[in-house]
Amino acid sequence: MILGELFSVGVSSSLLLKKAGEEMARTIILLLDSFGIGYAHDAEAYGDKGADTLGHICGWMAKNPRRAGEAPKPLYLPHLAEHGLQAAAELSRGEALPAGLGAEHTIGAYTYAQEVSRGKDTLSGHWEISGVPVKFDWGYFPDVPKCFPQELVDAIISQGNLPGVLGECHASGTEIIKELGEEHVRSGKPIIYTSADSVLQIAAHEEAFGLERLYELCKLAFKLVQPYNIARVIARPFVGTCAADFTRTTNRHDYAVPAPQPTLLDKMVAAGGSVYAVGKIADIFAHRGITKHYAAGGLDKLIDATKQAVADAPDNTIVFTNFVDFDSSYGHRRDIQGYGEALEYFDSRLPEITALLRPDDLLLMTADHGNDPSWSGTDHTREKIPVLFSGAGIECKQLKPMQTFADIGQTIADYMKIEPTLTGTKADLS
């Protein structure tokens, strides 16, 4: 390929220069889904003033024994703290955490970021991080019985060739399968429900209803909800024999609206690079701007898949993992201890990932919204998120607070020497 041809396919001059001999960088993004570090400036408008996912977990675990007869054991996150988590949280809170996390110094650049998107949901958070804030209002289903429009329900039933549906309400995904799972298996009627997010979820038994049938039904529902401006339809398969042992599986699948403008991932691929997506990242971005997908579910498997992706990733690659369990298994279920112990597990295995990093790699640890497990209800909380950058060339310092998540994507775009994202201001990492 001649030089002119390279430019014609959108490869930047900086990338060409690097190919001439200089090793190209990679960026590894570890997103701890729902890991907020203090309520946002506009949290009151969302009913979330006072929410603090990390702070309340930290305070609870410092005071409460994990098991009967034991003394309380404070939250211990030495590796995350070393990367700046404690410092970022205390910057966000304006005061010290209830207990130290186990590290006395930091090895990277840290701050917090506030969201400008109007929602506090998965898509809004991820899109804004990637440079595309959501300035419009998603559609939502009201928190009332029979919350879905009747014409939508009728269309799902008729076009899906169903005997009917169950649920039709706001609900916790784990609770509704306990409540309606047995009736679903008997009747063949899938369970449809929603939350405070812009979402329609369909739960069905993998064996009694069929996994592929559930996926096809969700594809149909995704088309049908578009007039209502709904962001996602989520397939929620489960297994088990009765209410007592029904369990959701890792075969969840999200059908999401694509971002309305090019994201950081799109720009990475357009520059001739790669994006390796781990877990539900590919679904969140509607499989656009993704060059390789690593399917995994469960915190342990997601860490394993991330290690594999980092080991596989060539130069000029973004590896992006969403660790969904913090949100789905602990935040929504209001399990404070479970959330804390999951954080400790992640922290204990973080060195396995950092050991795979190369000298030119940039590591980012962040979140997409909050989900305070001590808060009322079961929904996300409007919070600031940690922004923890580290790498061999990254100066150890406090960065300016970011007034939009988009500053994160802009910083990565600058580091990777690709076209800037549409919004956001880059941080000075050197």
Short description:
With 430 residues, this protein is α/β, with parallel strands linked by helices. The chain is built from 15 helices and 14 strands.
Shape: globular
Order of helices and strands: HHEHHHEHHEHEEHEEEHEHEHEHHEEEH
Beta-strand portion reads: 15-25%
Number of helices: 15
CATH homologous superfamily label of the largest domain = Alkaline Phosphatase, subunit A
Residues in helix, %: 25-40%
What is the subunit organization of this protein? single chain
Structural class by secondary-structure content? alpha/beta
Global Rg: 22 Å
Largest sheet: 8 strands, mixed
Strand order of the largest sheet: 10-9-11-1-12-13-2-14
Mean pLDDT: 93
Number of strands: 14
User: At the third CATH level, what is the topology name of the largest domain?
Assistant: Alkaline Phosphatase, subunit A
- The CATH class of the largest domain turns out to be Alpha Beta
**Runs with pLDDT <50, length 5+?**
1-22
Total domains? 2
How far apart are the first and last residues' alpha carbons, in Å? 35 Å
CATH architecture of the largest domain: 3-Layer(aba) Sandwich
Describe this structure in words.
The protein has 430 residues and is α/β, with parallel strands linked by helices. The chain has 2 domains: 3-132 and 259-416, Alkaline Phosphatase, subunit A (3-Layer(aba) Sandwich); 150-256, Phosphopentomutase (Alpha-Beta Plaits, 2-Layer Sandwich), CATH 3.30.70. 36% of the residues lie in helices and 16% in strands. The protein contains 15 helices and 14 strands. The chain has an 8-stranded mixed β-sheet, with helices on both faces. Strands 3, 4, 5, 6, 7 and 8 form a 6-stranded mixed β-sheet that branches. Helix 3 packs across helix 14 (336-354). Mean pLDDT is 93; it is low at 1-22.
